[in-house]
Amino acid sequence: MRTDLLVDAVDGLDEALAAVDGFDAALVGGLLRPQPGQAGGLTGLADAVAGTPLASRVAEAAEKTADGAGDEGHFVALAAARTALLGSVHDALVARVEEATGRPTTGDTDAVPAGAGAEQAANLLVAARSWLSDLARAGWQGIDHELVGGAAPVVSAMLPDPALRRLATLLDGFAAELAASCPGATLERVPVRRWADLWSRAVLLTVPGAVSARAADEATGRLLPLGVDLQEHATAVQAQVHAVFEPADGGAARLVRASVSAPKPDTVVGAGLWQLLRPHMSLLAAVSEGRSMELDAMPLTGEGDLIWDDARARAGEPADAFATARVALPAAAAFAVAPLDRHPARIAVPVLLEGYGVEEAEGDGGVVFDVAGCRIAVDTGRVPAAGPLTPEAVASSGACLGLLRWDAGAFLLQPLAVERTVRKKAVAVHAGAWAGGTADKAGVRAEKAATDAVKVLRERAGKLLRK
């Protein structure tokens, strides 16, 4: 792996991000009566896409919005330009990763038009776009509970329709974040990039036909797990298994993902999270046991996501994740990313690093890997408490299997597993080692505590229902 390519500058990257930042800054104060500084951000966005098919529409939108006469159509054009710029950043970074890893380039997948359901719900899409436009006019510093509360009836009307649930969930979560920050005039710190990301994505999802149905397939063959990325929220948890899929027909190996999510009470944390997820995915047990899985016609989306069905999978032979990373991973190609999902924050590429030196990062006490003179930051903050992997284990490792991400202008590594030497023997430590159950003392204690918490909550819920 050529780590030097990961620290080299990418042509045009800074300019594209500067244009995005300029527009994001305009959203802070609002687009109803933009100040001269905000108008410059709008013009910069238009200039950045001047050589694209969006040029004329975005130029008009920027001019009208700068004059305080921007309408919903203009805001859609601005959101499209911002998304296109971040998409170009995503593509440039992914191309750099593919060059560094030497893997096959990501292929394109065909998309088919969205179904007719979008036309039937046109009134709800218009209502959502109207609310988002009001947000843009007010700006993040101008939000209040009355404005933010306008999303509630739209979300309630959308949720019963599966075709609109994606947008409804986004609007619901976005409105909740804004409500927790009201009034905007008193905010000391605004999450400028995040709220602009959520706003622009939601705006484009209100355009009929913006979401394409990716060509689906069925996967039959061997699945070789690499590791688990556990993502926890106060009320929900998700485990995403990254793996290499080897088709039974001898086709090229591909990088795939399988995810499982569950709601959770905020008292269930640490290793107890696995109790909520295990019943829904047998793959978690295979990860813990270091086994492959044999898939039979498992649904596979055009973006490489397995729609997991336990009835279509069975446990296979032992498969060491590090052996998979050394032998199968270098030849595995990723799937293409849908247009609206092309964003730098979405980059999560499985890689294996070996033969590095370990240094302590300046200031935050983190870890940096020195690979052939190139320093790669390690995001130990993403290591979940629901497994035996710790920052200390990462710091004493000699090989690391992780996800290559991009944040704050640089590539960094999220560890999924490490190899370290204990009594002259290589010992692997996996973040998802407790996913299917564990005999580890610390894991057993954490599971018992979670079991007790869930039992108490069920008893209380039962009492409330009986009343």
TrEMBL record:
Record protein name field: Uncharacterized protein
Annotated source species: Streptomyces plicatus
